[in-house]
Amino acid sequence: MSKISNQTTIKRPLEVTLLSMLHLIAGAIFAAMLILTIVYSITSKDELNLFITALGMKGYTPLFLGIVLAITTGIAFVSGIGMLKGSKWGWHVGAFYYAYNIFRNINFMFFIHLPISIFPLEALTSFINDPNLYFVKYLVRGFVFFLFYFIMNTKRFRVYFGLKLEKNLIVLLIEFLVLIIITSFFSGYTV
């Protein structure tokens, strides 16, 4: 239940419950991945390399992967709990998570050619088998995250969380400005 004012309480829409549960499930999966990354880092470098490759994150250092997984785990749990409680901050964290993933996937789509142009094709076969496949993968992911972001900005969501459209547009602008900075930093770190 969300309180719009001292007098009015709105029943939580099904979409809010479903997305909240999706966030909590994703948080649990990311937490398991983080635990496995830590365990493999301590016990077996070979297992760690296999695990990182299986995640499709070959080329990332274990430390960087651990940091990304820890942040993603936290965001997923915090947004899921906050949205279930009907808190505005839960909506803001969830919206930021989707905006980040939209921006990240667009970034990958446009910059997948960089490793191809820098390294010889033989060196990339274990990393990138087919650049077009990666482009499609990131396009589909970006579209799915866009759909979730769109759902979070529907009138039912805004009313439940007590958000005004004008303020949402300002939040959207701020989110994407912050994301440009974050993505620029991580692009430089990972490429």
Could you give a short description of this structure?
By secondary structure, the protein is mostly helical. It has one domain (2-190). The protein contains nine helices and two strands.
Strand order of the largest sheet: 1-2
Q: Roughly what fraction of the amino acids lie in strands?
A: under 5%
Indicate the low-confidence ranges by residue numbers. Answer: 3-7, 118-124
* Number of helical segments with 4 or more residues: 9
Level of helix content? over 70%
Structural class call reads: mainly alpha
Largest sheet: 2 strands, antiparallel
Topology order in helix (H) and strand (E) letters? EEHHHHHHHHH
N- to C-terminal separation? 45 Å
Tell me the number of strands.
2
Radius of gyration in whole Å, from Cα?
Answer: 19 Å
Mean pLDDT: 79
Morphology: globular
What is the total number of structural domains? 1
Write a structural description.
With 191 residues, this protein is an all-alpha fold. It has one domain. Helices cover 80% and strands 2% of the residues. It has nine helices and two strands, in the order ββααααααααα. It has a two-stranded antiparallel ribbon with strand order 1-2. The N terminus is likely disordered.
Which features does this protein show?
disordered N terminus, mainly alpha, 80% helix, 191 residues, globular, two-stranded antiparallel sheet
